[in-house]
Amino acid sequence: MDREKLWQSLNSDLSRLIVGFVLTTVIGGLLTQWYQDRNWLRQSQFEYEKRQLDEAQKFVEKLSTSVSLHLWNTREMEILLTTPSLFTEADTERIWAAFKETRNKWYMDLPVNQSKANLLLAPGMKELLRANNETSTDNLSDPKSLAGFFAVAEQDVTKMMNCMRQKPCQPTTDDINRMRANVDRLEQAATQFMEQASNLVYHKAVEIEPLKSE
């Protein structure tokens, strides 16, 4: 078959139909594969982000429980120290023991919680949880982190508890007022930190929602 006959054969309606069918099949297959790959990637991304979100939610819930328990025991110590006549000696020892237990657990868990705060919530949350060496600084007056606010309140509570156990020692009005003010500041700082952590989790949930619906 010479070139002219070959060209006529290829240029016929049937040939164009066959070529068009082949191209449509090939291109359609490629498009189908592209959509499948795209959907798989989106689904994989959604599943990864959802796992991260679940871990962040669990972390915030656990951290909230820890903060709330330590805050409550600190507040209970404040009540005990400002109104000691309302408590028996057994009550005093029970409340003091509970305070020390939650305080020790708080500091034991703090390094891990700092790492998780940065990893699961946002960069910088580690420092908002504990800044520099605030928890090991005596006479800290201007804390920048939640752990710093805890440290200030703990120092006041411990100082007044040691004073109360020494019978001749009596906390001054200034001591009591300072302790109350620092426990109040601690509660405000704890509320602000947990609200910020919860908001970060909420925004993460909003961000991955389009991946789920597409």
Over all CA atoms, what is the radius of gyration?
32 Å
Shape: elongated
Class from helix and strand fractions: mainly alpha
Helix/strand order, N-terminal first: HHHHHH
Largest sheet: none
Strand content: under 5%
Helix content: over 70%
Low-confidence stretches: none
Distance between the termini: 54 Å
Q: What's the total helix number? A: 6
What is the average per-residue confidence, as pLDDT, rounded to a whole number? Answer: 84
SS elements, strand count: 0
Topology, pairings included?
Elements: H1 3-10, H2 13-82, H3 89-121, H4 125-129, H5 146-165, H6 173-213
In short:
With 214 residues, this protein is an all-alpha fold. It has helices at residues 3-10, 13-82, 89-121, 125-129, 146-165, 173-213.
What are the main properties of this structure?
single chain, 214 residues, mainly alpha
Can you describe what's shown?
This protein has 214 residues and is mainly α. Helix content is 83%, strand content 0%. It is built from six helices and no strands. It is elongated and about 120 Å long. The protein starts with a helix and ends with a helix.
